[in-house]
Design a protein that fits this description.
By secondary structure, the chain is of the alpha/beta class. It folds into 2 domains: about 200 residues, nicotinate phosphoribosyltransferase (Alpha-Beta Barrel); about 170 residues, Alpha-Beta Barrel (TIM Barrel). The protein is about 35% helix and about 25% strand. It has a 7-stranded antiparallel beta sheet with strand order 13-12-1-5-3-17-18. It has a 6-stranded parallel beta sheet with strand order 7-6-11-10-9-8. A 3-stranded antiparallel beta sheet has the order 15-14-16, with no helix packed on it. Strand 10, helix 12 and strand 11 form a beta-alpha-beta unit. Helix 8 crosses helix 9.
Length: about 400
């Protein structure tokens, strides 16, 4: 038995690739074309229906892969919000093609997946900017992806993640509450809540899960009576297994807690939440735990195409049909307004040059921001765009 995962060495060496890239490399070498330099453009090919923008993510991992070869890389900053209706180069890779041909699979896989997750997280966060969101999606995907999923959800705007490895990879402490299993093993919700309070350190918020054995309202009141002022919040989970309207259940719980003097107790909702449910509950819920809808988002399609080849001492614009030949520069006027011009040309209306040099022949020349800094960058941009129309 084994885990079917590619190792870091597999990815960085180019072994985690499609066979036709290795065949292409072999042909170019044997036919004397191993020294042909190209400029390859990475761009968004398409977004899910209803999306007006995407959050460009996965840059750090893509740079880690490309830094194994003597290539030069220009890129938008990670976390940049890009419009879905305007073709903007996300990255330009420059170098001899045989040096990086087999890395395309891994680079695009990293960028597509991270961008899709971060974009979905950002859409959900934008629907309730003043509410707290925790990413609960690790059980929805292969555990090898846990750090990447936590990172992408976090930089997409969520406030916390549940993964234990997030402290090692992201420098943030994981957040969470308690599972139904804890209460079931005790066989008594009060005993489980008391045990949690007695064992957990003081910096762990006391959030009681209140839908295991009894009516949610009754369990919420029982939890408040059990823990009193120490109770930070109550969590309502798995609404699909309950009869009735989830919003009405939460309204009933909130009303009763307020009536009995427990206005300090926050409401945490989780279990199959998506954009529509966040919109429906945002006036009642203080903290959302969102998992599968972010961990398995509709994909943002990202592709790569050669747009220039170096021949006879100069860069020659060339591309497959349907793509604009020639390398390009990207300038930004505002969050969703960009101008793209041919490489070496001057912009006419937008003057913030956002396609920056990151790798110079494989050497990192620009300091990379922390996940927290990227998240703040994303949140600043989200405040400048309208709320998305929920699509799920």
């Amino acid at each position: 038995m084994k885990l079917y995962i590619a190792s870091s060495d597999d990815i960085l060496s180019g072994s985690a690739t499609d066979i036709y890239f290795l065949r292409t490399k072999e042909i170019l070498i044997k036919k004397g074309l191993s020294d042909v330099a190209v400029r390859m453009e990475v761009h968004i090919n398409g977004v899910p229906r209803g999306y007006d923008w995407a959050i460009y993510s996965g840059l750090e991992e893509a740079l880690a892969i490309l830094s194994q070869r003597p290539v030069t890389v220009y890129s938008l900053p990670e976390g940049t919000l890009v419009p879905s209706t305007f073709p903007i180069p996300l990255m330009i890779i420059e170098g001899e093609y045989v040096d990086f041909v087999e890395l395309e699979t891994a680079v695009l896989g990293v960028l597509r997946h991270a961008t899709s997750v971060a974009t979905k997280a950002a859409r959900i966060k934008r629907l309730a900017m003043d509410r707290r969101f925790i990413f609960f999606g690790l059980r929805s995907a292969h555990p090898a992806l846990a750090p990447m999923l936590d990172r992408s959800a976090f930089i997409g705007g969520l406030d916390a993640v549940s993964g234990v490895l997030s402290e090692k990879f992201l420098g943030i402490k994981p957040s969470g509450t308690m599972p139904h299993a804890l209460i079931v093993v005790f066989g008594d919700n009060v005993k489980a809540w008391k045990a949690f309070d007695e064992v957990m350190p003081n910096d762990v918020p006391r959030i009681a899960l209140v839908d295991t054995f009894e009516d949610e309202r009754l369990e919420a009141v029982k939890a408040a009576e059990t823990l009193g002022s120490k109770l930070y919040g109550i969590r309502l989970d798995t609404p699909s297994s309950r009869r009735g309207n989830f919003r009405e259940i939460i309204m009933e719980v909130r009303w009763t807690l307020d009536l009995l003097g427990y206005k300090h107790v926050k409401i945490v909702a989780s279990g199959g939440l998506n954009e529509k449910s966040v919109l429906q509950l945002r006036d009642l819920v203080d903290i959302f735990g969102v998992g599968t809808s972010i961990a398995f988002p509709p994909p943002v399609d990202i592709g790569a195409d050669i747009v220039e080849v170096y021949r006879d001492g100069r860069w020659v614009p060339i591309s497959k049909r349907g793509k604009l030949p020639g390398a390009k520069k990207v300038y930004r006027c505002s969050t969703l307004e960009y101008e793209v011009v041919p490489w070496g040309s001057n912009p006419k209306k937008c003057y913030e040059d956002v396609l920056e040099l990151y790798l110079d022949k494989g050497r990192l020349v620009k300091e990379l921001p922390s996940p927290s800094s990227i998240r703040e960058y994303v949140l600043r941009q989200l405040k400048e765009v309208p709320e998305p129309t929920p699509i799920d």
